[in-house]
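Internal QA ticket QA-208
Title: Verify multi-chain structure generation after dependency bump
Assignee: T.L.

Test input:
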Amino acid sequence: MNNFIYSRARDVADAVRQIAAEPTARFIAGGTNLIDLMKENVTRPSRLIDITHLPIDKVEETAQGGLRIGALVPNSDLAYHPLIEAHYPMLGSALLAGASPQLRNMASAGGNLLQRTRCFYFYDTTTPCNKRTPGSGCSAIDGINRMHAILGTSEHCIATHPSDMCVALAALEARVLVTGTGGERSIAFADFHRLPGDTPEIDTTLQPDEIITAIELPPKGFAANYTYLKIRDRLSYAFALVSVAVGLEIAGGMIKEARLALGGVAHKPWRDRDVEAQLTGAPPSSETFGRAAGTMLQGARGFGHNDFKIELARRSVVRALTQAARGTPQSQSDKRTA
Ligand SMILES: Cc1cc2nc3c(=O)[nH]c(=O)nc-3n(C[C@H](O)[C@H](O)[C@H](O)COP(=O)(O)OP(=O)(O)OC[C@H]3O[C@@H](n4cnc5c(N)ncnc54)[C@H](O)[C@@H]3O)c2cc1C
Ligand code: SF4
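Actual output:
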């Protein structure tokens, strides 16, 4: 049994004050990841700061025509929110592809961004893991690595980011609003999660004294031509082997704008602006999509057990782009099976 202190934050300023005063403390929201990590002895916070009573639990329209999602909005409420269903169905679809209904009821938007990798060595404290114990080595590179990354890896870590929601947020170009001792700031989603490099223990650019207060979506939701395709070992309650979020704007038989992000393949949602530029101005054809998928995966590298992911990701990109262009997203079937 590891002792820890429990305290409740009165407001956002109090939450920041508490975390700044005790760097070994952690915020607790839904607890669906943090409590597991504590039970497995991977994380041993000295204090849990309960933020569940803070007034950051609303979905509101912004003056710019977008949406502000409070960090404490539960994943399930968000997925079925009328404004998400109408304007950002790609995000709703990604949320419903994650976890189980019970977990989605507990899981918060902010916690989803900060959930840690599902690399089994990270959870197994008897094995070396640079993310858990910096400098100890990476057990996955020469170990069982079927679930691991094929893009953006380093010699120190080949873990993937497990979130579905974050893949859609990357494609939608969301921003993360945070508050710390230095005040408020807004982080572009592409800059929020990190690649492992030589510091895989650091997942994000959030500072230790900062709290996520909201996620902001720009007005454009690609509601007509989108898809969130998740390939996994079971139809529900499994993390992605590969997932693809696509948003297309099609006019006059040509792609006017394209967004494409991959999950399950890297330490962060993987987006490639060159591929999006390549798609822009091209006809939505199988040749265009095949070429885009080839470019997206050209730098991919497997580590043995996960070699299959390279071809799986290539085919998934083609399928997701085709579904989006046809206006036949996977989200309809998600809602029946989730
Ligand atoms: C069995 C299982 C299956 C799952 N399957 C999937 C899946 O398929 N797809 C998927 O995407 N996810 C999946 N999840 C993960 C789940 O979505 C996350 O655990 C959840 O989103 C985390 O949210 P939470 O509120 O419970 O976070 P918590 O566990 O409370 O916190 C997680 C981390 O975030 C920090 N934190 C929380 N809120 C804030 C904030 N506002 N500001 C700063 N720090 C904060 C905490 O300190 C902690 O470090 C699964 C989880 C489980 C247990
Ligand atoms: S892949 Fe990353 S998380 Fe997994 S064992 Fe290696 S260092 Fe640890």
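Spot checks passed. The domain at 226-324 is CATH 3.30.390.50 (Enolase-like; domain 1).
Status: verified.
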